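Tokens help. Consider this.
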Amino acid sequence: MKPTLTPSQTSRASVRSVALLRAWLWAWVTAVASLAMFAAMPAFAQGDTLQATIEEFVKTQSNAGTSTAQALEEDKPRRVQVELGQLDPRLKLAPCEKVRAYVPTGAPLWGRSRVGLRCEQGATRWNVFWPVTVKVYGQALVAVVPLRPGALVNAADLRVAEVDLAASPSPAIVNLTDIVGRAVARNVEPGQSIRQEDIKLRRWFAAGDPVRVVVKGSGFQISSEGTALTPGDEGRCARVRTDNGRVVCAQPVGDRQVELVL
């Protein structure tokens, strides 16, 4: 026979059950509240420090010229301004004792770009990319008057001003000799920086013209004659047949002259 519980025993068992249930519910509520607080924490407790690290990293890289998409003369002063974007707010990253900033492959620190952040010392390793806009200010040529397609540029049409060199993938023109006398390819408004894409390419020679081929190597330079197989447009490879019958791809650098660097 099963033992029969007295009313007092039943009452005590019920009290114990209710107490255990209340303790379990309290533990569950506390755990949920803790998780909610953790989820509501910002991605980085040291967010300001990381932002300062990124800004310093980008400025160092840009001033060194190792990560920019365009080469600039070292004697030209530049002012670098870094604008940080926002990480995905859904990211919840663990605290990290040592974070290293780096440039992702194929992402030059020029204009709209990104900086990699890698946790190298922490309980949980992570890697994210922080969007940035890098503005590099320097002296370049800007239009004084409206320049329209087909017009030839005069020195009086231009002035030197500080511009954001990184505002466009096309390099800013900084020297008068690179633009005066050349035709405009697209509309340029007064005060606007003039880019290489705004000016028509020089055509140094036509297909069929005789050209001088200058070959440069480590410690030597030789020249020979050849015949252009394609037009010699500035900045584009021109196919040239040399006197010995060999066809090479060389860079047009002057009037009926190409250069081949070995």
Summary: Helices lie at 7-40, 47-64. The CA atoms of residues 199 and 219 lie 35 Å apart. The two ends are 104 Å apart (CA to CA). The longest helix spans residues 7-40.
